[in-house]
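dumping this here so i dont lose it again. seq + smiles for flavin-adenine dinucleotide
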Amino acid sequence: MKPAPFAYHRPRTREEVDGLLAEFGGEAKILAGGQSLIPILNMRLAAPAHVIDINGLADELVEPALLGGTVTIGPLVRHAAAEGSQLTATALPLLAQALAYVAHPAIRSRGTVVGSIAHADPAAELPAAFAALEGEARVRSARGSRSIAAPDLFVSHLETSLEEDEWIEEVRLPVQGVRGSAVEEFARRHGDYALCGVVALAEPRAGSRIVLALAYIGMGPAPVRLELPELTASDVAGDALEDAVRTLAHEQLEPEDDIHASARYRRWLAERLGVRAARRAAGALEKH
Ligand SMILES: Cc1cc2nc3c(=O)[nH]c(=O)nc-3n(C[C@H](O)[C@H](O)[C@H](O)COP(=O)(O)OP(=O)(O)OC[C@H]3O[C@@H](n4cnc5c(N)ncnc54)[C@H](O)[C@@H]3O)c2cc1C
């Protein structure tokens, strides 16, 4: 199938994007890498009257940049550029770990980091990484700009808290520093959306204690950051971690039955993968 007819716009500046969204608002869609939007248009799951292609924006950074202790990612930074960047490798290994699970190289060569977050698919890796890292989205419109923290950005499946005239001009992720990280997921084939996945961050605390945060993929309408109670290294190696993850998976996650897996199976995966990711993230701490 081909998309329903639409008017095509190719602005050269961020201000022109603001102007187009101010004029067309809810009738318009931003086109970034097109790896989600184009299939949606082709299948006529959406039929916007206007498509605003931001790929012609001039002077946009094509790689992540370090600004004031924060990794800043502009709207045209492709997955592949972020994955291969030296800055990501040193300042934000979790981002590279998560990107390795996103689709296939051909899709990562075109898809953008900001587009993945704006798309707000709870089955996608980057919204979960963004939630785990407590990132913020810099959002703008002709009315001005504002920051939206990760917990306030994702409303539900494919739904963010952006107003109709707003778009994301960049995402900001705090440098990982001494925190260890890991990503685990289970998909039937590598590159498919996972039946369940989890992003883990481990932070050292005084007295050899560890705080672990987990953000799940495909386990509810939106990714959420869940913190486990402070644990010791021997807790992490033993039953205490398994008990903590089991409790969290039962109390906080909302998996659904679908044709791919039952909610019960997904919850079981969430426990196993959560424990595995938490142990790997805590193990990465020892390398610092
Ligand atoms: C076969 C296949 C397999 C895939 N597998 C995975 C996978 O395993 N994991 C995964 O995470 N993803 C997967 N994807 C999706 C892929 O990662 C997309 O690239 C990504 O979801 C969207 O990024 P994009 O730049 O292509 O955005 P687009 O497709 O251009 O846009 C997606 C949505 O975000 C909006 N948008 C884009 N940029 C902005 C912005 N700056 N401000 C506001 N709104 C914006 C658009 O209007 C649209 O609604 C897969 C895609 C395909 C085709």
